[in-house]
User: Fold this.
Amino acid sequence: MSQVVALPPPLRADRAVAGRTRTGTALTMVTVYVALLCIVPSNVTISPLGGLGRPALIWGLLLLLWWAIARLQARSEDVSRASQPARWAYVALLVMVLVSFAAAMLRGQPDDQVTVAISAVIRLLSWGGVVLVLMDGIRTLCDADRLLARIVWIGAGLAVLGIAQFATGRSLLEWLTQVPGISVEASGAGARGAFLRPSGTATHALEYAAVICSILPLAITLGLTRAHAGRGRLPWTWIPAALIAIAALISVSRSAIIGVVVAVVASLPALPVVYRWVVAAGGVIAAVGIVAVVPGMFGTVVELFAGSDRDPSTLSRTNALAQVPEFLAASPVIGLGFGTFLPRYYIFDNQWVLILLELGLLGLFTFVVFAFTAMWSAVSTIRRSPYSDVASLGRGVVAALLTSLVLFAFFDGLSFPMSAGMFFVLIGLAGAIRTIGAADAHIRPPRREEQDA
Assistant:
């Protein structure tokens, strides 16, 4: 397998990686999951299965079963030797969820909460299937590069759909109600000011913004590495990143604008110094261009921030924090039960607060460890791998995860299928990058004269 080191100036470095085979099956399986997650509208379910009928959820459970069978049948040489602390952190989170679930059932719950709690545990198992297959199945830079490219182009497709929704003032998905055998839940898309808030294929505009913002760092990083690898020329390789940024900026959402800023700033360390100012300037130019082209957009965006003290959604989030001690008092250590805190009790629009209430202080700590262990796994590739392209992808995944975690403070991301699924895809990618970096640590780095040969 031949790969190119992405260092400015670009170097031609053909490295044959012994003992590292393509894992195309895992790549295909995960690609199908991402496609089902993002292309099939997240408010569409298979009617007979109800809330568990989302295609991506079912595919995630199949991935978990496939991973378990593969592990049982694997030979020692087929098992990745890279340690995966994020895998154990996921197991700890799963145990914490099951303990909280058991305690909630022992306390007694209304029938509808029992069903929701069971569904929440099943969702966590489905997400775990994606994480485990990514960690153990994506072992080469070739496959990681291809998967990231597919995620980025799917994100660009979502961006184009969002831009079309914004321009036409329609969801463009009305035809789904005519498809037999499926149920289409009510969407949370709406208008703000004079503009439609695009939601793409997501259930809500906030979910849509969170997903495309979390993909943005991958688009920025991949655009640069592919250009240096000779598979495109700047700035054309950054077209997906530009589309995603534009779609986020026109979403008429404070969270989306904050997400774009976090995504761009977090992506800068993955870029050579010469390109950092280009990316930052490009973001500013895109924002100015949108304001100039779309009449009334500037005033609407300014009002989003200047009038936040009068905005109902902001006031709701602020006032909700005062209610946390009252709800938490019932079970402060292990929480009320994962998935049992329904909107009829209170809407916090904050995933961190929701985790605290549902899993308690211990569960919140476990989730933090899970998220930051995955980020550390990706960061560790910088010192493990002698190749800068691997390190760049690791930084890009960290930036994407950081963007998701920041946006969790603005909406309950794990309650929405697309944003939750994408978060766990990023967790799995962090583990995959660690696997690749661990393999590269055993490879002799090419000398400069070998790279130039």
Q: What stands out?
A: Residues 29-71+89-440 form one domain. The chain has a mean pLDDT of 80.
